[in-house]
Amino acid sequence: VKPKFRNFPMVPRVVFGSGCFDQLGDILMAKRKHSDAPFIFLVDDVFEGTELTSRIPRIFNDQLIFISADQEPTTKQVDVLVKRIEKDFDDLPSGIVGIGGGTLLDLSKAVAILLTNNGSASRYQGWDLVLKPALYHVGIPTISGTGAEVSRTTVLLGPEKKLGINSDYTTFDQVLLDPDLTKGVERAQWFYTGMDCFIHCIESLQGTFLNAFSQSYGEKALELCKEVFLEELNPKESRDKLMMASWHGGMSIAYSQVGVAHAMSYGLGFLLGVRHGIGNCLVFKHLNEFYPEGVALFDRMLEKHEIELPTGICANLDENELDTMISVAMGMVPLWENALGSDWRNVITPEKLACIYRKI
Ligand code: NAD
Ligand code: ZN
């Protein structure tokens, strides 16, 4: 029987502060099973050859694997990584450490789950299908906004669907929040991933699932986003605050849900491979009807940071392609219920979504 109240796991341990990355060695030392059980570091390949890589505390036979974040993670990629780790070592590793943005964090969570659960990652896409605890896993974000560092999901593109592995075992065992790691993020990417957080706040706070738990985190995250994107902060303050906004934004949706922008952005992601952050922005711009205040703030932020969103993304789609996108979006039932209430189908029709998609 499904319990009435959801009993959510949270990240049990977190360190925060500029330079705290250098404490990673000590944190991992306490979790090393023995000298033949390595830590596997999955690292965004933008860090290949950088100073950060030289600071990764590798000892014994620890392994460092660079991974490109150019494409969003797939179940196949997870399966390949798991096989490679199983082949390279006789013993299970001591743990997995993911260093990067949402892409690397999600991959690391999935690899940790699949090292202790049999079969392909695609088997576990859905809700609460993971039966055994994951291997110890650590998340270290290097760009702020997705909330993947706190969430109980890992979003993967599978053979049939783009869907999260949502489970109590997905959540990281340890998170390390060092705002200095976000220093090198390119401006447009900083904006798109930061807006993911802003949109989480708006969708959570304007949703029908809202409750005091979600509201308390959502309001704080929104306040921080407004400071970061509309006020004049010094760079250190801005990095610190956006990292905490991401955390609170993630906590806010844990006990509620996202809404219209995310549902429609999934459609763009599935059909066209448009990435999460930019996809949300492309859609959100046209959601004045649903989130008037949020969209007004968003427009001010775009203007202040001189971000030009690409246009004409859906210009050349035929009816079939448009229908695919619409059915992926409309399949996100809980998101629509949160956004518009249980009779959302009276408001959202395929024609209406087609009309919004055509503007993108
Ligand atoms: P990302 O991880 O895809 O990275 C975006 C770009 O920024 C990449 O090119 C990456 O190399 C670069 N980058 C990252 N850190 C950098 C740094 N310090 N310096 C320079 N470049 C850097 O971006 P994202 O927006 O954080 O993550 C998007 C992914 O997160 C999507 O796959 C999405 O599905 C997932 N996501 C997951 C959750 C969750 O709860 N699990 C929530 C939201 C989004
Ligand atoms: Zn999001």
Provide structural commentary:
Helix 5 runs antiparallel to helix 6 and helix 5 (187-205) packs across helix 9. The N and C termini lie far apart (43 Å). Strands 1-9-6-4-2-3 form a 6-stranded parallel sheet, covered by helices on one side. It has a 3-stranded mixed sheet with strand order 5-8-7, covered by helices on one side. Helices cover 44% and strands 11% of the residues. The chain has 360 residues and is α/β, with parallel strands linked by helices. Bound molecules: nicotinamide-adenine-dinucleotide and zinc ion (ZN). Zinc ion binds at residues 146, 196, 200, 262, 276, 280.
Percent in strands: 5-15%
Radius of gyration of CA atoms, rounded to a whole number = 20 Å
CATH homology-level superfamily of the largest domain: Dehydroquinate synthase-like - alpha domain
Strand line-up across the major sheet: 1-9-6-4-2-3
Largest sheet: 6 strands, parallel
**Which architecture name of the largest domain does CATH use?**
Up-down Bundle
Number of structural units classed as domains:
2
**How many alpha or pi helices?**
13
Question: What would CATH call the class of the largest domain?
Answer: Mainly Alpha
Proportion in helices: 40-55%
In CATH, the topology of the largest domain is named Dehydroquinate synthase-like, alpha domain
Number of strands: 9
The topology string of helices and strands comes to EHEHEHEHEEEEEHHHHHHHHH
